Amino acid sequence: MRRGGVDAETADPVDDSVDPDETGRRADAARWARLRRGRREPWWIRVRESRRARIGVAAGVVVALALGLVAYFSPLLAVRTVRVDGLSVVTEAQVLDALDMPAGRSMLRIDTTELAQRVARLPKVHSVRVQRVFPSSVRVTVVERTPVLFFEAPDGAHLIDSESVEFAIEPAPIGVPKLVTETPGGNDPATRAAVTVINAVPVSLRLEVGEIVARSVSDIQLELRDGRRVLWGGAGDSERKAAVVIPLLTRDGEVFDISSPNLVTVK
Fold it and tell me: Any idea which UniProt keywords this protein has (predicted)?
């Protein structure tokens, strides 16, 4: 049927009815959910669960301690080999004697710091590192002292390293310069100044130095093996002096004065 220019069609009826039983079930379910969320377990259940948790933790601690004790004393982790690296003049026997490690000692029972300190007491040892290498090895890495100067004394040649430490009385290795000063020794200011100078001298020139004469901390000179002399002056500004000395030695002359590196002279 058409009314007022608009088609009118018959529509299917819509069922707006609500099932009372379904609504009740949903309300009951929501209410029980709220009750369950707010409900607490009875106290005796909470105590029982807490006790079980504590017992489990304690058992775990006991097992861990037992395993640790077994590993601490077990021969399975005993030290079987000791490897020593970095030796040149110090012998392996000297290092092993200094370590004084009991046979069969567990890897977990060794004190690497204490062992390193024992080896470091050897006069010719500059530094040492001791490491565990599981399952059964210990590695000892040694850095030896190297002489940079020596001085003559009634009991023989005293070797001095780059830190002004007197560490041996024995013939000096070939190529090590001789120190000439009034009171040589590790605590002598002129000796320490001479060590600072020789440490700054370029390696290529250091091999040519036969003697280093230190009349005072500010009057140091290098006596080269070919007869030439380098007047170094004091230990101050040694880096600049080391930079100018090699080019200067290419000139003809016998005395090379670099005590003032900004105003060098050759005679």
Answer: Cell cycle, Cell division, Cell membrane, Membrane, Transmembrane, Transmembrane helix
What the block records as the tokens of 22 is: 């379904």
> pLDDT at position 231, please?
98
What's residue 8's pLDDT? 37
What's the rounded Cα separation, in Å, for the pair 120 and 126? 7
Residue with tokens 């050897």: 122
State the Cα–Cα distance between residues 247 and 203, nearest whole angstrom.
14
Phi-psi region of 5 (alpha: psi -120 to 50; beta: other; left: phi over 0): left
Q: Where are the domains of the chain?
A: 78-144, 147-266
Rounded to an integer, what distance in angstroms lies between the CA atom of residue 255 and that of residue 131?
52
CA atoms within 13 A on the CB side of 134: 6
**What is the phi/psi pair of residue 96, to 5°?**
-65, -40
Which segments in the chain show pLDDT lower than 50? 1-18, 63-64, 66-67, 69, 71-72
How long, in residues, is the chain?
A: 267
Would you identify the CATH topology of the domain 78-144? Ubiquitin-like (UB roll) (3.10.20)
Please choose, from the candidates 103, 96, 106, 107, the residue with its C-alpha nearest in 3D space to the C-alpha of residue 134.
107
**What does the block give as tokens for 235?**
């230990």
How far is it, in rounded angstroms, from Cα 114 to Cα 43? 55
Mapped onto helix, strand or coil, the DSSP state of residue 102 is coil
Which DSSP letter does residue 180 get?
E
Q: Which fold has domain 147-266?
A: Rossmann fold (3.40.50)
